[in-house]
Amino acid sequence: MSKSGMSRRNLLKVSLGVLGGTAVLAGKGFAQEKYNEGVVLNAGIGHDGHQMTAKRHNQKTADYFKDCDMNPMKFLDTFDYGKVTRLPGGEVQREYKIVAREREIEVAPGVIYPAWTYNGCVPGPTIRCTEGDRLKIHFTNASSMPHTIHFHGVHPAGMDGVFEIVPTGGSFTYEFTADPFGVFLYHCHVMPVKKHIEKGLYGAFIVDPKTPRPSAREFIMVMNGFDTDFDGENEFYTVNGYSNYYSENPIDIKLNEPVRIYLVNMTEFDLINSFHLHGNMFRLYRTGTKLDEYEHTDTVMLCQGERCVIEFSYKYPGMYMFHAHQSEFAELGWMGFFNVLPDVV
Q1: Hey, which of 61, 177, 196, 318 has its CA 20 to 30 A from 155?
Q2: At the fourth CATH level, which superfamily is domain 78-208?
């Protein structure tokens, strides 16, 4: 229950324009009618309490993504490989720049949230490298509060981002060798950790094996939530930072195309989050650190900070939903579609 006495489910009905009965979900020229308890996804509530027009919403969204130099569709397959140099011993060195700063972001139509960000976006950039690479992550704190970066994986104690707290205006360089391969995460580790994470200071960290995985269409999906009324529980749930983005903008994939998703759960204030794929099954690699062992399923539950790699392809064309298998999460923004394109004759 929010401080105003409005439940999260009722907040959804107001902020995303749930009208009950039949609705139309629009995206890339596709329309799906008669989706029970549908959501009108091109409307929202502005700060003045009046319904936001589609034109105004689209302009605000465009302005936000312009400032961030990113949108959830672009974020899906954007990986930061760093500045690459070859060391005298033959090792590959990758250098990255990450800046913590505060900025307002839009997390749903007309819903503005005062976030703490890495490089201006929530989630932060997806860092990618190969096992054995030497990494240097140059961190600058341009915010008004102390912050750090804690990387999951193997590294020296002095690079753990727990005791090396960086004050406002300060900087620190994390140096370590990427080990082992898999999908990991990074986040601020200043107390209270749950607040620093929930406010937006997190991102994904992918370490590829030295022998490349089989070729596939690759996506990063970071599951998260936003406590927009600051009551200690989430009012919106998203993948890659914007509520219902992939419902409005379905992800095009080809028939029989191998798809690989690096899935990371960074949801605070809820113990678990989940991913369910419609009309299909996927190979589930826990943490992605073993390639010879996997489960075959259509739903995975992840605790806070847990992650996995899932792989699949579709046998039949059409529009297929994916979403959290907690109904409330799905109804509060964690929902999307894959648009499986038929073979072109």
Answers
A1: 196
A2: Cupredoxins -  blue copper proteins (2.60.40.420)
